[in-house]
Amino acid sequence: MTLRWRPGYKAARNRPLTRGQKLSNKPLAAVRAPVEHSFAHLKNWRVLGKVRTDPRWATALVRALLVLTNKEVAR
Question: What CA–CA distance (Å, rounded) separates 46 from 71?
């Protein structure tokens, strides 16, 4: 079985979300929140704005910074 990513439901001004749509959005938000927080923390590292090098090195740098950020946040 292949899982496909699906965006969450969005309420319109004249059409609120149904209960089923709200329940469907909950697991998506639970998975998405830690990723959004990680990106927000990584933006604090100004060196990422200057990365103009090999993508493999940049990936290693981002992973290292994420480890440092997680340690800092966990304190």
Answer: 18
Tokens of 2: 């292949």
Judge contact between 21 and 6, C-beta under 8 A: no
* C-alpha to C-alpha distance for 37 and 32, rounded to whole angstroms: 9
Question: Could you tell me if 59 and 67 are in contact, meaning their C-beta atoms sit under 8 angstroms apart?
Answer: no
How far lies 15's CA from each of 27, 58, 60, in Å? 22, 44, 45
Q: Helices 19-42 and 55-74: crossing angle, nearest 10°?
A: 100
Q: What is the pLDDT of residues 22-73, one digit of tens each?
A: 998 998 888 888 778 777 777 777 766 666 767 777 788 878 888 887 777 6
